[in-house]
């Protein structure tokens, strides 16, 4: 029998909603309420315990009778109220996936606050969001749109670093930028809702990962200067520092001096590997 190749197949990855769960589950005081069918709940709960923050995920019991019987939104609201009974929960993220009936949840039918917790719907349907990075971007943009304190005046010489990095990376970046005159550095995704509130008042944003398009567009529309590129390699690091200095209007001489110092340090660090 002749084999026929299918040209429409492509590699499959885990549900992209997991990217959003990584961002959400690392926030202090959060409880995720996952609105999906049992298959989604099992898979996303399983991987979240291993690769996210090992926090519990709550969910209404959505069997066929609830989905087809029209009681789903009532069950979701009941789950939110039950979660809000825990005084340690300060933020309830209601996550909907691509199950047809759950993807179309009307946000206005959910409370904006329950008990001691803010409530926010985060839509992560796989038919629209194809990758984990996109789901992270959607999640961060949703939280920033809801919690960002946009009425605050711009704080001069402040920078938002956008993209997942290790804690030690944030400290290293902050120490370098402090030397050129940056007064405060914030990072998103953050581990506290206050990170999202404060991020709305920065003067500029350095986008470390290119897939945060929605978040970068939101910030730019609100008047935040966007700094593109990454501190990769000796020349790339120096150019990145200079771009940040230009965006924040910092002392050009000082910025250039620090950029050259970091270029030399980077070259010295990678020199032993140049023969590989």
Automatic annotation (TrEMBL):
GO biological process: chlorophyll biosynthetic process; photosynthesis
Family annotation (SUPFAM superfamilies): Helical backbone' metal receptor
Nitrogenase/oxidoreductase component domain span: 15-270
Entry protein name: Chlorophyllide a reductase subunit Y
Example of a GO MF term: oxidoreductase activity
Keywords tagged on the record: Chlorophyll biosynthesis, Oxidoreductase, Photosynthesis
């Amino acid at each position: 029998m002749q084999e026929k190749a299918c040209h429409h197949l492509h590699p499959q990855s885990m549900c992209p909603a997991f990217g959003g769960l990584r961002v959400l589950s690392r926030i202090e005081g959060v409880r995720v309420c996952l609105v999906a069918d049992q298959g989604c709940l099992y898979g996303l709960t399983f991987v979240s315990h291993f690769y996210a923050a090992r926090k519990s995920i709550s969910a209404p019991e959505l069997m066929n009778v609830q989905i087809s019987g029209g009681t789903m939104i009532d069950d979701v609201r009941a789950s939110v109220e039950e979660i809000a009974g825990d005084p340690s929960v300060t933020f309830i993220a209601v996550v909907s996936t691509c199950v047809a009936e759950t993807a179309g949840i009307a946000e206005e039918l959910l409370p904006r606050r329950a008990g001691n917790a803010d409530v926010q719907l985060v839509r992560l349907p796989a038919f629209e969001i194809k990758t984990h990075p996109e789901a992270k971007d959607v999640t961060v943009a949703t939280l920033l749109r809801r919690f960002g304190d946009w009425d605050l005046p711009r704080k001069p010489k402040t920078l938002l670093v956008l993209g997942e990095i290790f804690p030690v990376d944030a400290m290293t970046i902050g120490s370098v930028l402090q030397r050129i005159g940056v007064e405060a550095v914030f990072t998103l995704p953050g581990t506290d809702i206050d990170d999202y509130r404060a991020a709305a008042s920065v003067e500029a944003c350095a986008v470390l990962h290119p897939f945060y398009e929605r978040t970068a567009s939101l910030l730019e529309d609100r008047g935040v200067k966007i700094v593109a590129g990454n501190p990769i390699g000796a020349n790339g690091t120096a150019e990145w520092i200079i771009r940040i200095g230009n965006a924040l209007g910092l002392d050009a001489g000082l910025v250039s001096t620090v950029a050259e110092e970091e270029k030399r340090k980077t070259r010295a660090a990678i020199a032993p590997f140049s023969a590989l």
